[in-house]
Amino acid sequence: xxxxxxxxxxxxxxxxxxxxxxxxxxxxxxxxxxxxxxxxxxxxxxxxxxxxxxxxxxxxxxxxxxxxxxxxxxxxxxxxxxxxxxxxxxxxxxxxxxxxxxxxxxxxxxxxxxxxxxxxxxxxxxxxxxxxxxxxxxxxxxxxxxxxxxxxxxxxxxxxxxxxxxxxxxxxxxxxxxxxxxxxxxxxxxxxxxxxxxxxxxxxxxxxxxxxxxxxxxxxxxxxxxxxxxxxxxxxxxxxxxxxxxxxxxxxxxxxxxxxxxxxxxxxxxxxxxxxxxxxxxxxxxxxxxxxxxxxxxxxxxxxxxxxxxxxxxxxxxxxxxxxxxxxxxxxxxxxxxxxxxxxxxxxxxxxxxxxxxxxxxxxxxxxxxxxxxxxxxxxxxxxxxxxxxxxxxxxxxxxxxxxxxxxxxxxxxxxxxxxxxxxxxxxxxxxxxxxxxxxxxxxxxxxxxxxxxxxxxxxxxxxxxxxxxxxxxxxxxxxxxxx
Length: 484
Prior knowledge:
The longest helix is centred in the C-terminal third of the chain and has 28 residues, at 377-404. The chain starts with 17 loop residues before the first helix and ends with a helix. The chain has helices spanning 18-31, 44-51, 55-68, 135-153, 163-177, 192-204, 219-228, 245-254, 276-289, 347-357, 363-374, 377-404, 430-442, 472-483, and strands at residues 71-74, 78-81, 121-122, 186-189, 209-215, 231-239, 242-243, 259-262, 293-296, 321-326, 338-341, 408-409, 418-423, 445-446, 462-466. It has an 8-stranded mixed beta sheet with strand order 4-11-10-9-8-5-6-7, sandwiched between helices. The protein is 40% helix and 13% strand. The chain is of the alpha/beta class. The protein folds into 3 domains: 3-81, Orthogonal Bundle (Arc Repressor Mutant, subunit A), CATH 1.10.10.10; 121-130 and 387-483, Aspartate Aminotransferase, domain 1 (Alpha-Beta Complex), CATH 3.90.1150; 132-379, Type I PLP-dependent aspartate aminotransferase-like (Major domain) (Aspartate Aminotransferase, domain 2, 3-Layer(aba) Sandwich), CATH 3.40.640. It has 14 helices and 15 strands. The protein is globular.
C-alpha cells in the first residue's frame, strides 16, 4: 500500500512525546502490513504534512525508528523500511496479551481460523485440483463474454443467476443425473455455505425450528445453521447404509421437524451411500410428516463404479426435496459456483431472499461457465477429472494397504473425493489414533481428528482423507510420511 493511502493522522489527546507518537503510528503500519519491507518512505516535508507536525518532529521520529531497527537511511535517497524487522517481545511481567480495545461487545464463542503455517499438504477434505482446471478454455470464455455481452454482464445480474447458466445446468443435470428441472427452478449461488444460509433464512428464519442432521456429519453445516437461524439441531446416527430411518422416526414421535439435511449419494464424511430401502422410507416420512429435505450432492461427479450412482432423491420428488450441487468441486476451488434447485412455486420467493444475500452475483463468471457447458468443455473436463481421480484413489489405496494396513482400514466402495480411515488394532483406541494424527501434523500433513465430525464432539478413531487435489506420486509420498 502506498504511503499516501494510509490513514496516519495522529489521534487527539495522544500521550508521550509528539515524535514518539509519529514513530508509533509508522511502526503500527509496518506491523499491520500497510507498509512493506523495502518500501521507501516519503520525504520529511511530505510526512510532516500528513501528520500535521513540523518536519523536525518527523526527523526525530525517523531517528528513533532507525535506532530501533525499523528503518535505515541512504544518502541523498531517504529512509527505507528494513527487510528484516525487529522482533517485538512481550513486556516483562505481562502474563497475557492486552485486551482488545474494541468499543463494543462481541460474542465470545467466535473461533479463529485454523492456522496453515506448517501445512505442506491439506488432506482434510477432497477438493478439485486447480492444476487440472480448464484455465485456457475459461480465459477464452471470459474474452467472449466481454466481447459479446460486455455491457450486459458488467451490469447488475439476474437474482436467480444468469439465465444462460441456469439453462445449461438444467440440460446438464437432466443428461448426467436424470434430474429434469425447469431452469427457473435453479438458483446460482457461491458456495454450499450460501446454500445452507439461503435455506435457513427461507425455511427457518428467526423463529428457528427443529432440523435433523447426520451424525457424524459436516460441522460447517451445523455452524451455518446455528449462525443464520435459531434452529435446534438434532443429530441422527449414520451407519454403513447411511442415515438410520429409525432415528428419524423416534425424533418425529417427539414432534414435528422443519428440515432434514441429507447427503444420500456420498455421505459426508464417511462416503457411504444411502441404501435404496432407506431412501424410500425417508421419502415416505417426509410426505407423511410434511417436512422438506435438503439433498447435498457436491461429490456426484466423482462417484464411480460399474453401474454408476443412482439418481438423486430429488428426481421425481421435487415437491419435497431441495437439491444442491457444486461446480467448484468439479472445476477448481476458486471457481465459486454452486446451485440450488427448489420447488417451482418457491423459486421466485427464494430468489428475493438470495437478492438480499448477494445482490447481483457474478454475471461474468456465470456467462463464462455457461460457455464451457455449451462448448462441451465441461464434459471433456469431467472425463479428465474422473480418470485422474480413479488413478489417484488407486495409488492411495495401494499405498495405505502396503504401508499402513496394520493400523488403518477403509471401505474401497465408499467415498468419492475422500476416504474415511478408521483405526484398527491398537489404533482403534481414539487416543492412540489422535496421537498418530498429531504425528502426521508434525510432518506437515493436515488431517482432522474424528471428534471434529461428531456432533457431541465424542472421540472417534477415524479421519477423512481427501485425495482428489494431489497426484498419485504426492499421495504416496504423504503415506510414506504417515508411516514415519
